[in-house]
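Hi there, hope your week has been kind to you so far. Do you reckon you could talk me through the fold, stretch by stretch? Thanks so much in advance, here it is.
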Amino acid sequence: MTWKMHDRRGAKEDRRATGRMLLDHLRFLQSVINGVTDPVLVIGTDMRVKLINQAGRDFPVDRGKGRKCAGNAHCYRVLFGREHACDQGGCECPLMEVLETGKPVTVSRTITLKTGALRHYEVFASPLRGANNELLGIIEILRDVTERNLAAEVLRKSHDELERRVEERTLALKKANNSLRLEIDERRWAEDQLIQSLEQAELVYSVIPSAIFTVDLKRNITSWNKKAESVTGYTEEEVIGKTCSIFARHPCSEIGCGVYSEKVDKPIINRICHIKTKDDRIRVISKSADLLRDANGMVVGAVESFEDITVQQDMDRQLRTERDKFRGILAALDQGMHILNHDFIIEYQNEVLRRIFGDKIGEKCYRVYKQRDEPCEVCRMQAAIEQSEVQRTEEIMSNMRHYEQSYVPFTDVDGEAKCLILLRDVTEEKKYRAETMRAGQLASIGELAAGVAHEINNPINGIINYAQVLIDDSSQVSLEGEGANPIQREMLDRIIKEGERVAYIVRNLLFFARQRDEDAHLVEIETVINDALALIKHQFQKDGVLISVEIPTDLPEVKVNHQQLQQVFLNLLSNSRHALNHRYSGRDPGKKLEIRCSAVQIEGKAYVRTEITDHGEGIPPDIISHIFEPFFSSKNPGEGTGLGLSISLGLVKDFHGFLSASSEPGSFTTMTVDIPANEAG
């Protein structure tokens, strides 16, 4: 009996030793996973959290007022602050997928933190199986992938189930205290469970996608996983027992490392450092670190994880360099650039477009550039994306300037098809081409007019001379006593008068068509207006336009180029004739044109003002501010170039004068030309 009691006491002591060893290992495991900065949870098949690390408890999600991260809470409340299971809210549930497939799964989740910020996470879930391969639950690890596009698989093993089974087996052992064989079997079972737990912990430690190592208080390395070996080139045998400065670029110090410094907040998250590999290569890493504590809360070491971001940083530098080059090229070319997504949203603008249209990122392109409420009927951006071809066009934007546009489709890093658009302002180029063409046309017309005028001059002079000879002959007959025919004499006088009028028009035409002299001379406004009317008055009479001219005789002279000012008046008179004909198709008492000249004072300086008022259809308020812009025309296609008023404004400005418009739709339009008076005269 005595030896049996001794055996029972020995078995009990063994069980206690086994339990203490198991608890020590569990505390060590808890310390290790608490050192991991990503939330790690073990979830049972009942959706309750069995084991959670410190990062999981501190996970900044709103779990409800007054609610803390209590043990055995539901996973969806702990992680996402939800009241119901994920699959009931239309989201993927990692636990359900693992239970269905029996395989590890990865799902992406967007989580709203307490601060209101949205963060993107990848949830790694792996099945947790018991000794008999039965499914006990899952391990879930959350990795914040908002700033990094790195996929990570994290596996964690829970000890809760093991503790529960140990407790159950302990109770069973107490009940079967009379069986030494059962005591031995239970001890073996506990040892097997401990070995399995340690193996699973080692598996997690080895397959986690980050390099991880632990150090003691002297910074001697106590553990070293495969990823750390892959990054540094040092094997576990080469580093265990040595200080972590073996792979540091510079010797470790409290300032350099900081994990043991009271001045540095823990945990250390994503600090950028440099390490030296076994083959003397310098690598850039992003590291996180925290302290390891024993069951009494005493610091016994530190755990550090790091990732090699050398390639990523090199790519970032190259991208920044290429971006700066591209921006420099666009700035040098003075070309605008923006990027649109398929929803017509402006995602990027360069400085050129921002300077012209303002910061419009996030707005619809058709509202910014076309002032439309819906997309354009023909959308070059959609055509470029659908056809995967560069599209080119030329359009007028909301600032009434012409832009040559190139639409280049591309696929962004998010996999979405987008379009890069380059814009080049060609307004001045088009204006120059149009003015050059107009100048060539005017030169051709001038040469033609000069030739026609010379051809007309000879016969008209002959007609006048012959008529004068006939008048002289009739006068001679009258002197000799024979009666002259008064009707014949009147007809001859009319022939001479009309011939001289034709000769006057021809001289005016020759003067206007002659090679232009760009110099300014003193002229009278009345002379320029009369010369302009002489060229166009017949068209007004033919259209039944009633012309009223009021020009005082004491107006001062103006110093201008005669032909250029005449061209301004011809443009204004031509526009007035078009407006009157558009309102009145035939003759009408209201079809009137008024020309008034007067002397005025503007800011203390003398000017000669000419007002040309037509009682036509008027100009709508929404377009009157645009009438002086190049290529703007309210006429039907083919009736105007849109350059007349723009050229006239430029000529008047060259005279240091002003050209303005006032109008009342349906009543009148008045064009006012103010030219500085010659004060010396």
